[in-house]
Each structure stands twice: as C-alpha cells, then as structure tokens.
Design brief:
319 residues, alpha/beta, two-stranded parallel ribbon, 12 helices
C-alpha cells in the first residue's frame, strides 16, 4: 500500500496538491515562500520586541496578549515554531498563538531563534533558553504568574521544546509547569520503523528531508557524541520533567520516536497524555485545520494547554 492510499480521505487532497519539498536544494525556496497572513483576532494584541538571545546576539520575539486583561497575573507560554530547524518564523504561527491566548487566557512569547545550517546546534536551543529566561524575568512587567510557565512547539519546535525542558531542569533555570512538544523532531539516528516507512517525496516530511535537516542542524557536532539537548531522545534521565501533552499522525516519520518519548516519560513518573491520529501525516492539522481530524488535533492540544495553565477553570473551548 503506497503512502497516498493510506491517508485519511479528508486529508488526501492537500497531500496530493502540496508542492514537493526537498532538502537541501529546496531550502532557499522554502524560506522565501510567502506566508499566508492569519486573520487578526480583536481579542489579541501583538507586538515584536528585541531581546538578547544566545551568545548575547539580538533576537526578535513576538508577544501576543489578551486585549482585555483582568488585574491578576496570567500564565505564559513560550512557543517555538517548526521548520526542521532550518526554516520558519514566528509569523507563520500567528493563528495558533492567537488561539492559545484566547482559549488559555495566557500571554504567548514566540521566539525567532537562529536557523541551521548558518547557525547549527547549539545556537537555536540557546536562543530558546534565553527567551525562556527573559519571559520569567519579565513577569512583573507583563503581570505573569511565574508558577504557570509553559513551553510548546510543533515538529522541530517540538524538538526544541523537549530539549528546553531538559536544559531548564539541568541548569536549574526557570521552572516549566507544562510542556507540549507536538510531533517532535527528537531522534537524529533515523533508525525507527516509521523513519524508514515514510519515504515518499509527496509526504510533507519524509526520510530524505529528515536526514538532510539533521545533518544541517548538528553541523560539526554530528561527528561526535550527540548531546541530548540536540536530540532529546538520547537523554538517559527523563525524571523531573514537566507534565506533558503530545500527539502525532500515524503516517508521520516521527511517529515511533514520539511513542518512545511518551513511554520513557511515563516510565520516569512524568504525567503524560498522548494522541495518535490514524491516516494523518506530518503537520496535518496545520494544512487541514477545518477537517474533522484537524479540528480534533487542534482542540486536543489547545484544551490540554488551557487545562494545564488554568487548573481551576472549567472553560469550554469555543474554537
């Protein structure tokens, strides 16, 4: 059975028309592709600020916050965009970040971390750590509840989320109350069954792209021992990590590494919730947000974030 025939019917059309993407030759075209502007919510205000990133380099962050705020501290989410560690920007996540603000009543900081191959590991994770520290130190300015900090991201952003939770734990940095590494890119070895299974070039993300992206991300570090802060599945100690929600499509190359990650978190005593979506490929909910599967996935992780950050609230999702 080939890749297309295995896709859920409601997701199939987008998979058939989505332009093939191949690394490394397609990297510049992917970076230059226009971003479809998200509809602005009247309930959310956005602005960009420049802060010190890793290596004290200037870095932009995009801040989203409720327009009508009550005079009480609110939780905050550090959001990390996807793109295989080599492409993407906060602007591409405007839609979901606004949903997070509205449904979880939180402030969102989206980090414009440096990209490989120009800036391989550890530059991206150090930028994310700097943004986390900045967010915690800005608690008074933005009236943030320091006890309700979360981290989330999709794909490579999910990988950086998992890595950041490890780094914050080991550096005894800001305490993360909840993490949401969605279909995370966390295993550089590419030895799982699903990494071999998804090879079709029509797949949104496939084995060839994954191999190339990891080479670009690891750079010279790929020739030696790989740090768990680069590839989080390599960590030997999963204890003490924050409560976790994640999901993945059954036709995602990251399926098996996500399942292994969930299993090892559970074995370490970390509270973890997980959803596997049949017939779904990588980032299916972003490409098919109005499909039944797409709505289920988005509502699933938005609800998980809302419950984690507002444990006493019975808020019902409107999206």
């Amino acid at each position: 059975m080939d890749f297309i025939s295995r896709i859920a019917e409601e997701l199939k059309e987008m998979a058939e028309v989505f332009p093939p993407f191949k690394l490394p030759e397609g990297l510049e075209a992917a970076r230059e592709a226009p971003i479809i502007p998200a509809e602005s919510s009247p309930n959310v205000k956005m602005h960009v600020r420049t802060i010190a990133g890793g290596d004290s380099q200037d870095m932009n962050i995009k801040i989203y916050e409720p327009v009508n705020r009550i005079n009480e501290p609110i939780p905050a989410l550090l959001f990390i965009h996807g793109g295989g560690y080599v492409t993407g920007s906060p602007d591409g996540s405007d839609s979901i970040c606004q949903v997070f603000v509205e449904e979880a009543n939180c402030l969102v900081v989206s980090v414009d971390y440096r990209l490989a191959p120009e800036h391989p590991y550890p530059a991206p994770i150090e930028d994310c750590y700097s943004a986390l520290v900045w967010m915690s130190e800005a608690a008074e300015e933005f009236n943030i509840d320091i006890n309700r900090l979360a981290v989330a991201g999709q794909s490579a952003g999910g990988g950086l989320t998992a890595a950041l939770s490890l780094l914050a734990r080991d550096r005894k940095g800001p305490k993360i109350a909840f993490q949401m590494p969605l279909y995370p890119m966390i295993d550089d070895t590419n030895t799982s069954a699903s990494s071999y299974e998804i090879t079709d070039e029509r797949a949104i993300w496939n084995r060839g792209n994954n191999l190339a992206a990891w080479r670009m991300y690891l750079g010279s570090h790929g020739n030696g021992e790989i740090s768990p802060y680069a590839a989080p599945i390599r960590t030997k100690n999963f204890s003490g990590l924050p409560p976790t929600y994640t999901c993945v499509g059954q036709l995602d190359p990251f399926r098996d590494e996500t399942i292994e990650y969930v299993s090892r978190l559970a074995q370490a005593g970390v509270a973890v919730e997980f959803q596997l979506y049949p017939g779904a490929y990588h980032a299916f909910e972003l490409l098919n947000p109005t499909s039944d599967l797409g709505k289920r996935a988005i509502n699933g992780y938005v609800q998980a974030l809302s419950k984690a950050l507002n444990p006493k609230s019975e808020k019902v999702l409107t999206k």
